[in-house]
Amino acid sequence: MRGDERHALSRIILAKFQSNLTINMLSSKEKRRIRRSAEKTEKRTTFTGRGMDLNPFYPKTDSQEDLWTSLNKHTVTIAVGPAGVGKTLVALWWGLQAIKQDAIQKIIYVRSDVGCAFQRGRGALPGTLAEKMAPLVGPVMDNLAVMCKSQGAAEYLTSKGIIESMMLEDVRGRSFNETLIIFDEAQNTTPEQIKTVLSRVGQDSKIIVTGDTRQIDLAAFKTNNGLIDCYNRLANLNTVGRVQFSKSDIVRNGVIADILAAYED
To answer: What are the angstrom distances between the C-alpha of 210 and each of 37, 67, 86, 171, 251?
Structure first.
């Protein structure tokens, strides 16, 4: 090894030693704060530095713009309306933009595992937890392809825990800070279940509750529906925003409005 190489190596070793010595002199609280700050910076840098930049959001309807505004303004937003209007899309887009701006750190996607009267429970299905959850988080994966420039964005965001999916029964007892909670398909819940999810909102967090009251899957939820109860019960709270979509807001495919109308006749 040449003299200049040994000198450069010595400086690197000395710098690391001095850095470690300084850190070791700090209290445990300060060490944790520095570690969290470093992890936060690394996550933010990685998110924007691997071709993961978001496409700009342009609302396609007035209701989508109202939903975006409500998410900016309110701690709790309730979005109700038919399939295809972009409720989940706008919520995810807003959440990723907030992560990029360092306003929140992650997105929790919560969904009730309710399908039909004869459906097997998610736990009865074969495979790992991720494989069991895959059908439930389909809306997330589908929408990420629209809003992110990178084709691998969906896999990256979920694998790094920036977007975490969770079944309704796993929410109890949790507390989510600096998080956007998206509670999807909430029409298939009871008022008690909605209350449980709403009470998980921690510091600097927001929650959006979405659903379509025309798609209540089980008879038990028709008489005791959490989404309808939530929409009416929280109507007068200043911290809660409500957005009502209609068939005229459907942007997924124009034929959906015609199909829904045919089924309502």
So the answer is: 33, 11, 10, 17, 17
